Amino acid sequence: MIPQYLIDFELNDLPVVETDVIVIGSGIAGLYTAIMASATQNVLLITKKSLLESNTRYAQGGIAAVTAEDDSPAYHRQDTLLAGAGLCSSAAVDVLVNEGPVGVQELIRLGTTFDVENGELALTKEGAHSHRRILHANGDATGYEIVRALSIQVEMLHNIEVWDDHFVIDLITEQGECHGALVQMPDGKRVFVRGRATIMCSGGAGQLYRYTTNPEVATADGIAMAYRAGAEIRDMEFIQFHPTALSYPGAPRFLISEAVRGEGAVLRNIRGERFMPKYHDLQELAPRDIVARAIVSEMEATGSTFVYLDITHESPEMVKHRFPTIYETCMQYGLDLSSDWIPVSPAAHYMMGGIKTNLHGESSVKRLFACGEVSSTGVHGANRLASNSLSEAVVYGSRIVERIKSLPEPSGDPLRVSFHLGRKDAPSQAMVEKRLKLQKVMVRYAGLRRNRDTLIRAAEELGRQLPLFQSALSKREEYEFANMLTASLLVVQGALGREESRGAHYREDYPERNDSEWRKHIVFIRDQEMTEELSDDV
Fold first, then answer.
1. Which pLDDT band holds residue 72 (cuts at 50, 70, 90)?
2. Residue 197: exposed, middle, or buried by beta-carbon count in 10 A (0-12, 13-18, 19+)?
3. Is 288 an annotated catalytic residue?
4. In the β-sheet with 134-135, what is the strand arrangement from edge to edge?
5. Given this model, what pLDDT does residue 179 score?
6. 425-511 to CATH, choices 1.20.58.100, 2.102.10.10, 3.40.1050.10, 1.10.150.530
7. Fewest Cβ atoms nearer than 10 Å: which of 74, 99, 423, 538?
C-alpha cells in the first residue's frame, strides 16, 4: 500500500553531491553526531528548517547522568528499567547509564553551561528517578542551551557543511544498502546526496496529535523514510503524553516541565482537590503515563478540560530563579506561576519507538544509522524515564561515529535506481485540512486511552487517505503529510496488535499488563507482516 519512494525519479538524471557522512536533522542528536564525525570525516548536515529548530530546543527539565557521589549507574539503570515496564534492552540501558557521564563532560567541553550551585553542578530530581541526577541550564532552558552551544561549534568546523531549508524526501537504497538521500532544495530542484554513511537524527512525531509540546517540524519524517527504505520499525504504539502542558485559551501547548513537580508542585482538580495520592504511591512524581491518565480521569470526573498545577507554596524568588522561562511564558498570558494555579492537561510529547538499532546505532539497512528520538535503541522500553533522551542522543551519537570509522568503502559501481508509478495528478485536498483531520483522528481514537473499536475506527479513517501515495507530490507539506500518515498507520496497527496495557500504551479493553504473552516488541517491515520479538529486559 505504501510505495518505496514518494516521488517518481531517475537517479541518473539528478545532480550528485558526494560526502562522507550525511546527518539528517539538527537537534542534539544531529548536531552532536555531526561534530563528533567531523573529526575524521566530511559531514553534510541537512535540516528542513534551521539549526535552532528542533525538539531539543524546547527540552526544559534537563539531561540525566550520574554525577553525584550518592548516586550510581546501578541506581540509574534500575530507575530506567522500572519506567520502561519490561521492554527495555538491558544492554542498551547499561550503555546509557555507564557512558552518560562522559557524554555530559563532552557537552561541557563543547561549550554547554550547566547550572552550578556552591561550585558544583546543580542537580534536580524528576518523576521516577530515585536520586537527584538531572543537570539543567538557565533553570529550565536546558535544551536551548545545548543547541546554542553545539550550533556554534557546527558553524566553526570547516568539515561540516549545513543545508538549511532542505527537505530529505527519501533514502536511496539498493540491495538492502543505503547510499544516501534524495533531497529537495529550497528552489524546488532535487539532488542526490551520496555518502558512506547516513545518520537519521530527524526527531519525533508529536505532530501526529492535535495537542503536542513538539514544534511544527516534528512530523515523523525519519521513521517514515526508514520504513519506506525497508528498515525495521519497532514499538510504535508507545507514545508518551506529557502530563502537564499549558492549557489556556490563546496559548500554545507549552510544556510545564516535570521539574516543577520535582521541586514540590502538586496537581489539583478544578475543585481544588489534590488527587495524585489516590492514584500512585509516588504521587505527582509517578511515571508520566500514570500521571497523564490520572489527569484525564479527573478531567472527566469534574467535567473540565484541564487540572491545576500548584507551586504557590514555594517562595516567588525560588520559582522565578528555578523556572525563568516557564514563569515568563505564563506571565505573557496573565498567569503568575508563583501565585496562580496553572491550568494544564496532557499533550503528545515523545515517541519511544522508531527505527530499530543495535548498540552502535545501526539499523537493519546497511550504512543507515539512527540516533535520538527517531531511533529505537531499547533504552526507553514502553515508557521513557524523564531526561534520558538527551543523554541517549549523546551516548549513541558517539557510538555511531566510532562504528562509521570501521565501515568498508562502498562499491564504486554506478547505482541503477529509478522509480516510476506514473503519478501525474496533484493531491485533491489542501494539506492543512488533511493534517488537521489526521491529528483529530489520532487524538480521538489512538490517544492516551485506546480500545479495539476506537483503533479500528482510526485505521479506517486513516486508510481513506492512502490514495495520496498515488499522487504526484512536490511540496514540503505534502511530503510531511505522507510521512505523518505512514507513521500514524504504524502507531494504530501496533496499538491494535498489543492486547494489553503497558507503559505509555493503555487499552481500556485490556487494562492489565500481561507479561506471560506480551513481554515482547512489535516490529514492522514494509511489505511484510507485523512480527513480534521477545524483550531482553531482565
1. very high
2. buried
3. yes
4. 63-64, 134-135, 123-124
5. 97
6. 1.20.58.100
7. 538
Q: Which of 350, 359, 334 is nearest to 98 (CA)?
A: 359
Nearest to 193 by CA among 369, 365, 415, 34: 415
Distance, CA of 297 to CA of 306 (rounded, Å)? 11
List, as one string, the DSSP characters of 356-406. Answer: E--TTSB-SSBTEEE-GGGEE-SSSTTSPPTTHHHHHHHHHHHHHHHHHHT
SS3 percent helix, strand, coil of the chain, rounded to 5, is 35, 20, 45
Mean pLDDT within 329-346: 96
Phi, psi of 446 (to 5 degrees): -140, 40
If 0-12 CB within 10 Å is exposed, 13-18 middle and 19+ buried, where does residue 305 land? exposed
Cell numbers representing residue 411 in the block: 562499491
Question: What is the C-alpha R_g of the chain?
Answer: 22
DSSP secondary structure, 21-55, as one string:
EEEE--SHHHHHHHHHHTTTS-EEEE-SS-TT-ST
Q: What is the pLDDT of residues 178-213, one digit of tens each?
A: 999 999 999 999 999 999 999 999 999 999 999 998
Residue with cell 511489505: 527
CATH of domain 244-347: 3.90.700.10
- Taking the C-alpha atoms of residue 2 and residue 135, their distance in angstroms, rounded to an integer, is 42
346 half-sphere exposure, CB direction, 13 A CA radius = 25
What is the C-alpha separation between 318 and 140, in angstroms, rounded?
13
pLDDT in the model for residue 428: 79
Continuous segment of H or E residues that includes residue 158: none
Name which of 245, 169, 159, 262 is nearest 209 in CA terms.
245
CB-based contacts of 93, cutoff 8 Å, min separation 6: 77, 80, 81, 84, 378, 379
User: 244-347 with 425-511: one CATH topology?
Assistant: no
- Beta-carbon count within 10 A of 218 CB: 25
Exposure of 249 by Cβ count < 10 A (0-12 exposed, 13-18 middle, 19+ buried)? exposed
**Catalytic pick among 196, 228, 288, 476:** 288
Q: What length does the chain have?
A: 538
pLDDT digits (tens, 9 = 90+) for 30-45: 999 999 999 999 999 9
59 pLDDT more than 70: no
Indicate if the pLDDT at residue 288 is higher than 90.
Answer: no
Write out the CATH class of domain 12-238+352-405: alpha beta
Tell me the pTM: 0.94
Q: Is 80 exceeded by the pLDDT of residue 266?
A: yes
Domains of the chain, by residue range, sit at: 12-238+352-405, 244-347, 425-511
pLDDT of 457 over the 70 cut: yes
